[in-house]
Design a protein that fits this description.
The chain is built from one helix and four strands; from the N terminus they run ββαββ. With 64 residues, it is of the alpha+beta class. The chain has a domain of 40 residues. It holds the Pfam family YIEGIA_cap.
C-alpha cells in the first residue's frame, strides 16, 4: 500500500483553545463558530480538501 499526502488529515480547525497539537497535524484556532466555518472553507479550498465535522467545536480537512 502506497500512502501519500492525499491520505492524510491536512488540518484541524477548532474553537477549543485547550486542544494541543499531536502527531504533526496543524491546528488552527477559531474565535467562534462563524470564524470556524470561514477558516475551514478557506483552508479546504486552498489545499483541495474536504471539510468534515468531528464535533460542534472541531472540523478537520482531509484529502480523499
Amino acid at each position: 500500500m502506497n500512502i501519500g499526502i492525499t491520505d492524510y488529515t491536512l488540518g484541524i480547525i477548532t474553537t477549543d483553545k485547550n486542544m494541543k497539537p499531536v502527531g504533526g497535524c496543524p491546528i488552527i484556532y477559531a474565535n467562534d463558530n462563524k470564524d470556524l466555518q470561514n477558516k475551514a472553507m478557506l483552508m479546504a479550498k486552498s489545499v483541495g480538501g474536504m471539510v468534515h465535522a468531528i464535533d460542534k467545536e472541531t472540523l478537520i480537512i482531509v484529502k480523499h
